[in-house]
Amino acid sequence: MRILITNDDGINAPGLKVLEAIAQEIAGPGGEVWTVAPAFEQSGVAHKISYTHPMMIAELGPRRFAAEGSPADCVLAGLYDVMPDARPDLVLSGVNRGNNAGENALYSGTIGGAMEAALQGLPAIALSQYMGPQNYRENFQFDAAAAHGAATVRNLLNNGLWDGEDYRIFYNVNFPPITGDKVMGLRVSPQGYRQDCFFGVEPHMSPSGRKFLWIKGGPQHHPTTPGTDVSDCLEGYISVTPMRADLTAHDTIAWLKDQLE
User: Fold this and answer.
1) Tens digit of each residue's pLDDT (9 = 90 or more) over 190-207
2) 233-247 mean pLDDT
3) What are the domain boundaries of the chain?
4) Where is the Survival protein SurE-like phosphatase/nucleotidase domain positioned along the sequence (predicted)?
């Protein structure tokens, strides 16, 4: 199996090393793992592409490249520059340092990379590691992902739905904020929503007297509705959420037709 991996934390991120190990296990002895990751951190860029300016790409080693762009850019670079003669069988994005559950999924560059792969007609999975008091120590931050990542990906490949729709399914996986030996299992979870937990800004004055704004996130451990991704992760389960890039609110179409047409 040929696997392309990327992330949004950057080419030197520790989570990418975890993903490389997961991908190597899935690819097998005769497989190939290709890395195209951002040269610098790209957290929060969602599905951004560098449409209005070029990006530099550099080969750092065998099958290992860094691009000055977003995760979606890296997927495009992998497909059309790095691997133009043989497309990958699978694209993995992550392992993100921090959860991409709930409303975080809308901002996530990790998910943006998987989404671009799905739009290109490829099977894709985004993987993220929830952080919390039980795994925040350096040696254990990615313990759950490292312990269960390969088995989760293999489970999805063997038993998941991989359709050929125009907006094909891809998967968002979040590992709980605990060590690997404490993981309770796996749950298929819809995307949740943290109530009263919004991004905002915090102003600071520079020494030169100019005002700068830092984007500030809300608490990450507010539970969502039971049975959704954040809630399941906080209960110790790996959450798996099937996603599509189609943003249509299909549940409103019939009603809106009656109202407007």
Assistant:
1) 999 998 778 899 999 999
2) 98
3) 2-191+223-260
4) 3-195
Residue type present at position 10: G
Annotated binding site: 8-9, 43, 96
Feature table: binding site for a divalent metal cation: 8-9, 43, 96
Is the model's pLDDT at 138 over the cut of 80? no
Tokens 């099958």 correspond to what residue?
63
Residue whose C-alpha is closest to residue 170's, from 103, 227, 233, 105:
105
pLDDT averaged over every residue in the chain: 96
State the maximum Cα–Cα separation within the chain, in Å, rounded to a whole number: 59
Sheet holding 57-61, edge to edge: 57-61, 64-67, 32-38, 2-6, 90-97, 124-129, 170-175, 237-243, 185-188
Q: How far apart are CA 135 and CA 130, in angstroms?
A: 9
Tell me the torsion sign for CA atoms 123, 5, 231, 233: positive
Quote the CA–CA distance of 60 and 20 in Å, as a whole number. Answer: 15
Collapsing DSSP to helix, strand or coil, 188 comes out as strand
pTM of this prediction? 0.96
pLDDT digit string (tens) for 77-88? 999 999 999 999
Instruction: Tell me which of 3.40.1210.10, 1.10.10.60, 3.30.565.10, 3.40.50.2000 is the CATH number of domain 2-191+223-260.
Output: 3.40.1210.10
State the DSSP code for 229.
H
Which pLDDT tens digit goes with each residue over 6-28?
999 999 999 999 999 999 999 99
Q: Are 229 and 191 in contact (CB under 8 A)?
A: yes
What DSSP assignment string belongs to 202-214? EEEE-TTS-EEEE
